[in-house]
Design goal:
- This protein has 545 residues and is an alpha/beta fold.
- Among the domains are: 163 residues, ANL, N-terminal domain (Rossmann fold, 3-Layer(aba) Sandwich); 98 residues, 2-Layer Sandwich (GMP Synthetase, Chain A, domain 3), CATH 3.30.300.
- The protein has 15 helices and 25 strands.
- The strands form five sheets. A nine-stranded mixed beta sheet has the order 2-1-11-10-12-13-14-15-16, sandwiched between helices.
- Strand 3, helix 3 and strand 4 form a beta-alpha-beta unit.
- It binds adenosine monophosphate.
- The site of adenosine monophosphate (AMP) has 20 residues, from strand 14, strand 19 and strand 20.
Length: 545
């Protein structure tokens, strides 16, 4: 074999430290705007961000945080959350973002599983933290962001901790494959599973989001991540924006349509990202008062996490001149996998075909590869009509779950099984037709139907229960429970709801119950939820709340 020629490129590590250094050096005057619980707006620069990030790292080190430790956040989107996103991984530790919409039982499970040592929590979320924090023995210290009052006794005040530090920190040299972030995804069965994002995966994902045919995030952008920073590292926007030197606008807890539109108007937002429910609300507000907000600055509204309906994409375009960028991703894919753009080859295909392409899940972004397979793992043709489970691979796709659980989601030849049932067409457009997993999504948040079913079936009057998604104008989907009673037994809707109320977050409770004599089943004995959806899926249509 011929000898390798001499001369190589540098093995320069792809770490978040470079993003921070770049923002500090090249964009010190760029702004980070945060909306506070009292609705006032706070402004700081990237120079402030850089100093405060170093101070936070010094304070965390003083509190005993060491490389590999998990530091949890229970926060809205704001500057302190962004500081934690950088300080923790840059010191070699791992940010674990806790989802503030989960039930305390689930939060306790997740924080225990992650063995969080320090938690950074908003004062405005203190009650939630109190409901599960004491059940997590690994937590050594609690830092409170004083967003709505002083830190409670026995905790550290975030701002007081920073005020006591110098503003410099000796960032360690890191291996790019070290863990940076830990995000949990809800499983189809059993417990939520953790996904560890590395520095490398996060940096490459951020770079990819700056490609023009992806999200095209650039220095001249003003980015508004509406998607909560506890979800899949807020789709990478906090990393891509800092990498590009873009202005960041953080909405805090005010996620209603009018508050968001006010912020978009006032801060001249160019790119905002969120789940369809948020955008449905925004579209309705714009339709009601089309002249109230000047949104001429907005170049892209990124929608993902659940399917963006074609009617919404069209409504924004035709009635308000606003462009939707529809994207697909998962917690396991860091998270962006595909983006729906109209390809050059479709240029002359006409407006209907363009809308169809925009409303699809789109094509894989560079370095993400897609295929779909049948039940036996055979790769299927890209003909636009053959259904199969989507599998993906790439440098920002999980290779395994935290703790090695869920190994059956990874194939022997190196692909991740998404659980989404799709078609792929000859151009590579992915279209999700169903989810193979028995969970449903309401307002962009997963609800585990299996968990609800198990709880319902523990009611003394219930023989069988199947929970499925009913179409809902506001929340996209809401749970409906089909129930078979034991012979001679019955229970009212209120009794069934009361049976669930102590175990689940309120938004998990079914909006309706239907009593049936038997649950339809597949040939292998599984509940046939598509049949239930077909029969009862429309019963919530017209409901507002
Ligand atoms: P999560 O890990 O919570 O982000 O959920 C990922 C799942 O959300 C995917 O497997 C899909 O089922 C669904 N999803 C995400 N984006 C889209 C989209 N654009 N259209 C349809 N479903 C989506």
């Amino acid at each position: 074999m011929a000898a390798m020629p001499t001369g190589r490129m540098m093995a320069f590590p792809l770490t978040l430290t470079h993003l921070w250094e770049r923002a500090r050096t090249y964009f010190p005057k760029q702004e980070i705007v945060s909306r506070l619980p009292d609705r006032s707006v706070h402004r700081q620069t990237y120079a402030d961000f850089a100093t405060r990030t170093a101070k936070l790292a010094a304070a965390l080190h003083r509190l005993g945080v060491r490389p590999g430790d998990r530091v949890a956040t229970l926060c809205w989107n704001h500057r302190q959350h962004l500081e934690a996103y950088y300080a923790v991984p840059m010191m070699g530790a791992v940010v674990h973002t806790l989802n503030l919409r989960l039930h305390p039982t689930e939060l306790a499970f997740i924080a225990r599983d992650a063995e969080d040592t320090v938690v950074i929590v908003d004062r405005s979320l203190w009650k939630l933290f109190e409901s599960f924090g004491p059940q997590v023995p690994s937590i050594r210290a609690v830092i409170v962001v004083p967003d709505s009052g002083p830190a409670p006794d026995g905790t550290h005040d975030y701002e007081a901790l920073l005020a006591a530090e110098e503003g410099t920190y000796a960032w360690p040299a890191l291996d790019e494959n070290e863990a940076a972030m830990l995000c949990y995804t809800s499983g189809t069965t059993g417990n939520p599973k953790g996904v560890l994002y590395s520095h490398r995966s996060t940096v490459l994902h951020a770079l990819s989001s700056c490609l023009v045919d992806s999200l095209g995030i650039r220095e001249s952008d003003t980015c508004l991540p509406v998607v909560p920073m506890f979800h899949a590292s807020a789709w990478g926007v906090p990393f891509a924006a800092v990498l590009a030197g873009a202005k960041l606008v953080m909405p805090g807890p005010h996620l209603d349509a009018v508050s968001l539109l006010d912020l978009m108007h006032q801060e001249r937002v160019t790119l905002a990202a969120g789940v369809p429910t948020i955008w449905l609300g925004i579209l309705a507000a714009l339709d009601a008062e089309p002249k109230r907000w000047d949104l001429a600055s907005v170049r892209s509204m990124v929608i993902g996490g659940a399917a963006a309906p074609a009617s919404m994409i069209e409504g924004f375009a035709t009635r308000h001149g606003l462009e939707v960028t529809h994207a697909w991703g998962m917690t396991e894919t860091n998270p962006l996998g595909t983006v729906a753009r109209v390809k050059h080859t479709l240029r002359d295909a006409g407006p209907a075909a363009h809308l169809e392409a925009r409303a699809s899940q789109g094509c894989a972004v560079p370095f993400v590869e897609t295929r779909h397979v049948d039940d036996d793992g055979r790769v299927l043709p890209w003909d636009g009509s053959t259904y199969g489970e989507l599998e993906v691979r790439g440098p920002w796709v999980a290779q395994s779950y935290y703790g090695g659980v869920g190994a059956d989601r990874f194939t022997a030849d190196g692909w991740f099984k998404t659980g989404d049932v799709v078609t792929l067409d000859a151009e590579g457009y992915v279209r999700i037709t169903d989810r193979s997993k028995d969970v449903l999504k309401s307002g962009g948040e997963w609800i585990s139907s299996v968990a609800l079913e198990n709880a319902l079936m523990s009611h003394p009057a219930v023989l069988e229960a199947a929970v499925f998604g009913g179409r809902h104008a506001k929340w996209d989907e809401r749970p409906i429970a089909a129930v078979v009673f034991k012979e001679g037994r019955t229970a009212s809707d209120d009794e069934l709801r009361a049976h669930l109320v102590s175990r689940f977050a309120k938004f998990w409770l079914p909006d309706a119950f239907v009593v049936v004599t038997q649950i339809p089943r597949t040939s292998t004995g599984k509940f046939l939820k598509s049949k239930l959806r077909e029969t009862y899926g429309g019963m919530l249509e017209g409901r507002e709340g």
